[in-house]
Design brief:
By secondary structure, this protein is mostly helical. The protein is built from 14 helices and no strands. It binds dephospho coenzyme A (COD) and adenosine-5'-triphosphate.
């Protein structure tokens, strides 16, 4: 499954982290059935995205993730020069993504979240506990990049209209959606023997129960966000995606969110970020510590 890592000793730390980040993005894209998102079944609520584009986009980001890890290793500490280097590399990564996809935003939020976490993991490879990585990522996100262009993104429009601060705030708070919701649910569902794909779907649903996802707010407003949060909670309350009733409700949620055009892209990015820190913390973290 993780072909990149077959010869871990020949890869540098930065290359291993880039592999893990790209793997996490591909695992997220392939996970099915995700409500209203691109997956193996189709395009969800998106007219301009498809699975092949998500895969190509994920692969195009490998050099940016590697460069972010190298910048962190070189810096050795959280400081403004590192934050600004990450901002520059992140913008270059976004340009590579847009060149690959013909201008479609496939992974903007993921570059942000995974980029910070890759750098945070590279700063102290021997400290592979998820909470410690998230805290270092938060300290990076709290620093102001003086070279960041003032953009009028969907996120800034949603911030003005609804007060939701989206991807930036999630990182600055230390990724509570990952540490408090996704990771505990992923591990609970695994422990209950639900199987890896169901456990990942449950982790995505756990994120969706509370996230102020700016993709959903932009596309479907507060009714869309309410439908996403309540619908995800109802699937988990019914026993999660491994149970018959939960599956039925998951199918209903997929239909409802597609009808509302409410694709939870921010939640999908955070699931990828969750899979990344999970692999570092649990065993595969040896990939980093062995260096
Ligand atoms: C912070 C970012 C994501 C800007 O986001 P903004 O809120 O302005 O909006 P935009 O609509 O362009 O993108 C939001 C993205 O975040 C994801 N998202 C939406 N809601 C949330 C949420 N609540 N939590 C986390 N992610 C979310 C979405 O999938 C979407 O792709 C980012 O684009 C940015 O500023 N990048 C600069 C590059 C940089 O500094 N990189 C260095 C760190 S790696
Ligand atoms: N499997 C997935 N399916 C769909 N979106 C995903 C998936 N994984 C992650 N995403 C995230 O969702 C975002 C796409 O959402 P959206 O299409 O609303 O983006 P946008 O550029 O803000 O809007 P628009 O396409 O309307 O211009 C991407 O930035 C990406 O980070």
């Amino acid at each position: 499954m993780h072909a990149f890592n077959l010869q871990p000793n020949t890869l540098s730390l930065a290359e291993r982290l880039a592999d893990l980040a790209v793997d996490a993005l591909i695992d997220e894209a392939d996970l099915s059935p995700k409500p209203a998102l691109v997956d193996r079944r189709g395009n969800g609520a998106h007219t301009d995205l498809h699975l092949g584009l998500m895969h190509a986009s994920a692969l195009s980001l490998w050099p940016a993730f590697k460069a972010m890890a190298e910048a962190a290793i070189e810096s050795g500490e959280v400081n403004l020069p590192l934050r600004e280097a990450l901002g520059r590399i992140g913008r270059e990564g976004e340009a590579a993504m847009l060149a690959t996809t013909g201008g479609v935003n496939t992974h903007r939020g993921a570059i942000w979240a995974l980029g910070l976490l890759v750098a945070a993991a590279a700063l102290e490879p021997e400290s592979s506990v998820a909470s410690a990585i998230a805290l270092r990522a938060a300290r990076l996100a709290l620093l102001e990049d003086r070279y960041a262009p003032k953009s009028f993104s969907h996120g800034t429009q949603v911030a003005q209209r609804y007060g939701a601060r989206g991807a930036r705030e999630e990182a600055q708070l230390g990724f509570p959606s990952i540490l408090q919701r996704a990771l505990p649910q992923l591990r609970r569902s695994r422990a209950q023997g639900h199987g890896e794909q169901n456990a990942r779907l449950d982790a995505l649903l756990a994120i969706m129960t509370e996230l102020a996802d700016t993709c959903v707010l932009y596309r479907a407003g507060e009714p869309g966000l309410h439908a996403m949060q309540c619908g995800a909670q109802a699937v988990l309350d019914a026993g999660g995606s491994a149970s018959l009733d939960g599956r039925r409700r998951l199918h209903g949620l997929d239909q409802q969110l597609i009808a509302l055009n409410a694709s939870p892209g921010g939640a999908a990015d955070l699931l990828a970020a969750c899979l990344f820190v999970d692999r570092i913390e649990s065993g595969d973290g040896l990939i980093l510590g062995a260096l």
